[in-house]
Amino acid sequence: MDETDWLAERFEEHRAHLRAVAYRMLGSFAEADDAVQNSWLRLSRADTSDVENLAGWLTTVVARECLNMLRARRHRREEPLADAMPEPSAVDQPPGEHDTGDPEAQALLADSVGPALMVVLDTLAPAERLAFVLHDIFAVPFDEIADIVRRSPAATRQLASRARRRVQGASPPYPVDLVQQRRVADAFLTALRGGDFDALVAVLDPDVVLRGDRPALAAEAPEVMRGSPAVARHALTYSRGARFLQPALVEGTVGLVLTPMGRRIGAIRFTFGQGKITEIETVYDPARLRDVSLISD
Prior knowledge:
single chain, alpha+beta, seven-stranded mixed sheet, 12 helices
């Protein structure tokens, strides 16, 4: 394997992370892919013999690409590509409180970046957005961010602080507990895998609605189904496939992703209310599946 092939292989290992950074910086999948591709061009032409942390080096490169794109967009007074944004989530939770002692809560909050937060991020100055995204979402140290924005670490910390106040000020007027969402989703999955009708009904709102961009769980399923008994009975008909479901963040809320043989082919998006699942939507549209992210146990 020559050096170019080796670099390409290493780059592919980090592509998903770089795309996540770029998307949260730019709010557009198309622009994010451009930034990632530009970072590959930089890597392929650079002397990386002294680079000890390739992931960190690539993150810095893609962040600089994004910063340049944001500044150019601001100069032209352009908006991000609207058709590249995912469909709005019923519940979005910006990362706000970082002092919680619950590591699971921190991990979920760090990953829950939905369209509502994107709207707020679009109001920030490019350097503020970069500082907030890299530090608060991806835990990049301020010393490293300072080099990208060409400011002191103290000034960079202030950029992130200002951005954080803007984000927190735009938080939804109702509490969103992603850890609780995870518990409800886990209870649904456990009941489905165990074929437990009563346990399924227990986590569903009595008026739960099942819908999808393709008929739910089977080709012959109706387009819309209502009521916990009907939804639970229908779901149990296909409980054998539940072994391929894994917890994931689906458009900002906790849901499930369908991955037979490791291939992502669909997802289940939940809407929650009062500790119950009030709506289940099956998602098969590839554009919507691109931003589904697995939640590690």
